[in-house]
Amino acid sequence: MVAACARRGVRHLTLYTFSTENWSRPKEEVGHLFDLLARLLSRELPTFLTHNVRLQILGEWQELPFASRQVLKVVLAKTAHNTGLTLNLALNYSGRAEILRACRRLMEAGVPPAELTEERFAQELYTAGQPDPDLVIRTSGELRLSNYLLFQVAYSEFYFTDKHWPDFDEAELDAAIASFAARQRRFGRTGEQTAPPAAVQGG
Q1: What residue ranges of the chain have pLDDT lower than 50?
Q2: Cα 105 to Cα 119: distance, rounded to the nearest angstrom
Q3: Which of 52, 65, 66, 147 has the smallest CB count inside 10 Å?
Q4: Domain boundary assignment for the chain
Q5: Which 3 state secondary structure label does DSSP give 67?
Q6: Which pLDDT score, from 0 to 100, does residue 195 have?
């Protein structure tokens, strides 16, 4: 899917990989998930390099198991200077915790309330320097946000599918992109305000 997005010109892709709530799953399952993560990242590193993909992590990934952290450090370092698609892995991530973290950092920096803007606040998020998501794809028939990028998705478009993530293929990706392309994004304005101007025909 990363390669498919890169081929389609997608510049930023975020995958919700492991939430802070996922720690409550059975210990054996959590261990298996992190073993799988380490193996997949090691295996896919050549693909990242081939497609000029840069890896970034959203979340408190320093709290992950040692082996996973070591693999992440290697992949982060080797892809740091890539200039194509940015792949964000949300690991040990919580949208609410991210907002609280940003508030604490702003308070510690002594930012006066009068100087606090949305742009300044966004600089303290894990996604600082990246655009807000245009499209959020929710698989598996789920119809909730699940504590995901709560600040960033204020004006994102949503695409829901019953397909589970392992079965989400390029055809489904193209369907999601086509659905997004057919929508009119108004950002609080009227449809007339966002419509392109009518073409002028010369005579």
Answers
A1: 200-203
A2: 14
A3: 66
A4: 1-93
A5: helix
A6: 63
